[in-house]
Amino acid sequence: MHPPSRPSLQERFRRYRQPAGFALIALVIGVIVAAFAASAGWLTPSRLSGADVADTLEQHNGAHPGFRRAHQKGVCVIGHFDSNGQGQALSKAGVFAPGRTPVFGRFALAVGTPYSPDGVPAPRSLALNFTQADGEVWRMAMNHVPLFPVATVRDFVALQQATAPVPDTGKPDPARVAAFMAAHPETRAFGALMKSTPTPSSFANGNYYSINAFRFVDAGGRSRTVRWSLAPEAAFVALDRSRFDALNAQDPNFLFNDLLTRLHAGPQRWHLLITLAEPGDRSDNATVQWPADRTRVDVGTLVIEQAALEENGPCRNVTFDPLVLPAGIAASDDPLLSARSAAYAVSLRRRSGEPPRPSALARDGVAPAPMEPRP
What we know:
Layout: H1 9-16, H2 24-32, E1 42-43, E2 48-49, H3 50-61, E3 73-83, E4 99-109, E5 124-131, E6 137-143, H4 153-162, H5 174-183, H6 185-196, E7 208-209, E8 214-217, E9 223-232, H7 244-250, H8 254-265, E10 268-276, E11 296-308, E12 329-331, H9 336-352
Antiparallel strand pairs: 1-2, 3-4, 3-11, 4-5, 5-6, 7-9, 8-9, 8-12, 9-10, 10-11
Helix pairs in contact: 1-8, 2-6, 3-4, 3-9
């Protein structure tokens, strides 16, 4: 007898009424840069626009109408943030007052195609939208690696061009990649970090990092430079990268299936940690880590309870623009923040004018159940 076939991802959404409601371095670099790509105004000082960045992503990743220009394979999630009140000493933002703030967001892979299998050497990402009691919104877009491979929008575009596949081979030109790497030690360091850092086996057991620096402003007007991260309560397990091909053959959506299984068993939790900069720490360069001994403050717990396909989830028509910030949180002098904001806006405008396409998680045509409150 043959074992029973495994239910499809879409069937599992329907059955659970899931979340109701709502060379290797070149390859690695090629997928992480998708994490970057929102007013189409010019981005100073490089004079590159959000449209230029979006064009570069489309040239690098190929045309996929109806999808985001970056992080194209993803799923919506919904939950809440329970503040413990410790953040009030750092920021006057309402999200840090003791109590609960509703949250929705999106788990995704930093890949350039919506139909990529999950077994690729790509960062996992988590984007979130917090809606405060006063109506103000805080959005964030994080990766499971704490650095970005370049420091400026011009270098980002140059990296995309250097790692773009060439027609003859369908792979990046080794000479162009080598030339870029030789001129950018920060990108080489990022590639080395990606190769040496264990890959989480699940969306649910990885850390997520703001990458860019921001400023927190307290009720008295004092400003502090910060970064933040999410630390999971789920035990970390490393993914054996040598088994990517086998995992893809077994289930090309294994990360998303794992997330559904975990959410069906119960909510998934992360602690929001605010890292405080000290004098001399760079706030304008996302390729530079701060020393590990910097003070970190646990300000509360993110709880993800539900998931939904993007076709009917709350994240579909949202840009997780890192410059959507409430009073008490402000941008730093990192030039990537305005570049990300501009590129995201262009991406939304373009896909809004294109026919919607079924996601990789719904291409068999099975629609998930309507989102409803979780019991």
